[in-house]
Structures are given as C-alpha cells and as structure tokens.
Amino acid sequence: MGIDASPFFVLYARRRYGAAMTSQHQNTPSRDQIRRAPKVLLHDHLDGGLRPGTIVELARDTGYAHLPETDPDKLGVWFREAADSGSLERYLETFSHTVGVMQTREALVRVAAECAEDLAEDGVVYAEVRYAPEQHLEGGLGLEEVVEAVNEGFRQGERRAGENGHRIRVGALLTAMRHAARALEIAELANRYRDLGVVGFDIAGAEAGYPPTRHLDAFEYLKRENNHFTIHAGEAFGLPSIWQALQWCGADRLGHGVRIIDDIQVLDDGSVKLGRLASYVRDKRIPLELCPSSNLQTGAADSYTDHPIGLLRRLHFRATVNTDNRLMSGTSMSREFDHLVEAFGYTLEDLQWFSVNAMKSAFIPFDERLAMINDVIKPGYAELKSEWLFKQTASTSGSAESED
Ligand SMILES: O=c1[nH]cnc2c1ncn2[C@H]1C[C@H](O)[C@@H](CO)O1
Ligand SMILES: [Zn+2]
C-alpha cells in the first residue's frame, strides 16, 4: 500500500502542509455527501420548480391546452432549452405554462407539497420559496385563498418528507411582479400572513425598464411594519438597480445581486479594489442570493468557472447559493453545489460556509436561525467531515505505519 493512503500520513501532511492537504484528502465532497449535506435555500420560485409529470397531469385535469409537449421527459427538456436563450425576458416566457396549470386550489396544494418533498429529498433543511399570488387568480381564487392553498401544500410536503426521514422547514415569500401595479396590495398580504407561513416579500419579473423604485410605497409600508423583503436586482441590469434596491428601497437581501461584480476591480498584480457600492454591500453583510445555473441561462455569466461567486466567496461577501428555477435550469441545490465544487474545488468547509451564510440571512427569527445553525447545519457537516476517518481506517486495517 502506498504511503499516501495512510491516515497517519494524512495527519502528518495536514500538520506539515496545512489546509491544502485537508481539502485535497479529506474534504472534497462526493456527490452523495453533497446530497446529504444540510443545505439552505433562500431563492427558489414555486412556479419554476414543478415536476414535468405534474405539469402534464395538471394540464389534463384543468383543461390547459397550451403545453408545448405532453411527454414529461420531453417537456422537461423543452423547459431547459427554452429557458436557455441568454435573455431574461425570453427565460420568463416559459413561466406562462407553469403558471397556466397553477390556477386551482388543488393544483397549488399539490405543487407546493411536491416542492417541499423534492427539496427535502435533496437535503435542503430550510427553504424560502417564492411565488406571485397575483398570477394565480385566473381560475377564480382570491389572493388569500392562493396563499392558504400554498401554505397547506408546504405543510403537507413537510409532513410527508418527515415521514420519509427528511426534515425540512419551508417559509413562503410573496412576490409582486415589477411590471404590474399590485405591489402594495401584495405587501399588505404578506404582512397579514406573517407568522402564518409567510416570512417576507419580493419583487420579480423583467428588470430593465422596471426599476424597483416604482414600488416604493410597498417597501415603505413593509419597513413601517418591521417586515422583511428581498428584491430581484443586479441580474439583467447592473449597479443602478442594486443601488436603488438598497439605498432607495431598503432591501434586506438582493435577489441575485451578481452584477455587484461590476463594482469590483481585479488589478494586474492580483489585488482587488472595491467601489463604494460593493464596499457597502460587503461591509453591511448584505446577503446575495446567487443562482449560478440561472445566470448562465439568462446571460449574466458565461460559465461556472467564470461565475462571480468564486471571487465574491474569496472576498467574504455574504454569498449564498440558490436554485432560482429548478425546472427551467434542470437543477437542484445539490447540483448547484456539484458545479461549484468542480469549478472552484470547494470543500465541505466551503459548502458549510454558504449554508451558514444563507441561514444567517433567512427571514425567520434570530433564535430559530441560530438553532438551525448550531443544532442542524454544523452537526450535519461535522458528521460528513468525519466520514473520511472511518473509511481510511477500514482500508488500512493491519497496517503498521507510524507517523514517523
Ligand atoms: O430570475 C428571475 N428574475 C426575475 N424574475 C423571475 C426570475 N425567475 C422567476 N421570475 C419570475 C417569474 C415567475 O412567474 C415569478 C414569480 O415566481 O417570478
Ligand atoms: Zn428569481
């Protein structure tokens, strides 16, 4: 047996070479470990995460006749390809089909329950899932009925996941569409259902031409109510959008925010210079809800290796990893982590850092966030980090190598 397979060599090398050895030999997570790692998801759209098979069944049950494909596998491929255009506007067009089949109470309950189950199955322990209630009224439901149906679905999904051995907690974020004019009404709805399953508010939709300041009345209302909100900003549009979201609207978090990179200069000697806005975002620990795969599809980044998350993590921004739309990107939290591990060589330490960052940035009360970090996330990663010890011991049993 080669000496580099010995656990004693690894201990020795770790002492001698420091963290680099730790990451290479012990902490590079396998796919299975990534799936089992406790993950936290802050940016996931309910209408962007349906199972293709469910869309087909709901279309049949509700008489929705506009699906581009009725075979679930082909439909899944259709969504991924149609969303892959490089433009946010075209990406958003695909939602007409998911929203189209989410117009009844039964459909909303089912989609929300499956969402919670799918996330839990993927190892997500805490999720904030968003949707726009104003987009689910075509079948005659009222705004409150929509919220209650989705809440009911999340509770069902949490229960079923628990029965299958996966614990998850899901909170809803109510989104207002930025091109519409119902933001204040939706903000009031979010406030009414606070502590009843809704943990905050968001605005989404095409960014260019629809600055967040159009909805100042909603944000000011929420601030007066001491409520929480995030704003999609700095995805398809750059720094002015981020600046408005923070300094005019007072967002607690940035949905995407990836274009903050435009205010960061990497000089030839490798040193880094932050502009005023990037400094503010980092100094104030503003959470960035980064969504790598989604950014590749809408043209906000060219590849995983070039994605700004690498630099933002190195510079200790409050970066978090998210799925955005699992259906349109054919992704999951595990898959996002897989890509980042491959692109940046991330270790379990890095994945824990992202997960703790996300949990710190969640909209639930501080004591609950702390308990999730200390009682769920850290022990989960500690367990995974210790696995190499047992594997190596088993494979070297009988070996008499010593540290010297
Ligand atoms: O990445 C996005 N940017 C802006 N808007 C988005 C994104 N993903 C989904 N949406 C929109 C389309 C959905 O119908 C809506 C509510 O979830 O939010
Ligand atoms: Zn989004």
Automatic annotation (TrEMBL):
The keyword Ubl conjugation does not apply. Its EC number is 3.5.4.4. Zn(2+) binds at residues 43, 45, 232, 324. It is an enzyme of class 3 (hydrolase). This is Adenosine deaminase. It comes from Streptomyces lannensis. It catalyses: adenosine + H2O + H(+) = inosine + NH4(+); 2'-deoxyadenosine + H2O + H(+) = 2'-deoxyinosine + NH4(+). Residues 38-378 form the Adenosine deaminase domain. Catalyzes the hydrolytic deamination of adenosine and 2-deoxyadenosine. Belongs to the metallo-dependent hydrolases superfamily. Adenosine and AMP deaminases family. Adenosine deaminase subfamily. Binds 1 zinc ion per subunit. The record marks 256 as: Important for catalytic activity. The active site is at residue 235.
